[in-house]
Design a protein that fits this description.
Layout: E1 3-8, E2 17-23, E3 26-31, H1 37-47, E4 50-51, E5 54-60, E6 66-71, E7 75-76, H2 80-88, E8 91-93, E9 101-103, E10 113-115
Parallel strand pairs: 5-8
Antiparallel strand pairs: 1-2, 2-3, 4-7, 5-6, 6-10, 9-10
Length: 122
């Protein structure tokens, strides 16, 4: 008998509650999915969960003191806290354009952090 892990699939609006049975670090069975995307989501979530990281970065000389930013693609869930620390150290100079790269290749993931709105200069 292996371990059973419960995962909520967020691949589509159905939000299926998946049960993943694992034996010796190998997935033996996935149940509860109502579409094929649930199988792939469960595998990815079990072996290497990733998330897009939305947050804010400090801005100098802008009409607002912060600008919303996010990782351009999902990064490994285990790196979220380290990424937050790195983003907190950044201070951008206004003006900022939607899509500007705030941090290139954060934590050597190959993924950039980008601005998610324009921010004008004071």
């Amino acid at each position: 008998m292996g371990d059973k892990v419960r995962i909520t699939c967020v691949s589509c609006p159905m939000g299926c509650d998946l049960e993943v049975e694992v034996l010796d670090k190998e997935i033996k069975k996935i149940e509860g999915n109502r579409c094929p995307r649930g199988i792939e989501y469960a595998k990815a979530e079990y072996f290497n969960p990733t998330r897009i990281l939305p947050t804010t970065a400090k801005v100098k000389g802008g009409v607002l003191p912060l600008v919303p930013v996010k990782t351009a693609k999902p990064i490994p869930k285990g790196l979220l806290e380290k990424a937050m620390v790195e983003i907190a150290q950044v201070e951008l100079e206004a003006p900022i354009k939607l899509g500007d790269i705030v941090i290139k290749n954060i934590l050597d993931t190959g993924i950039d952090v980008v601005a998610t709105r324009d921010l004008a200069k004071k």
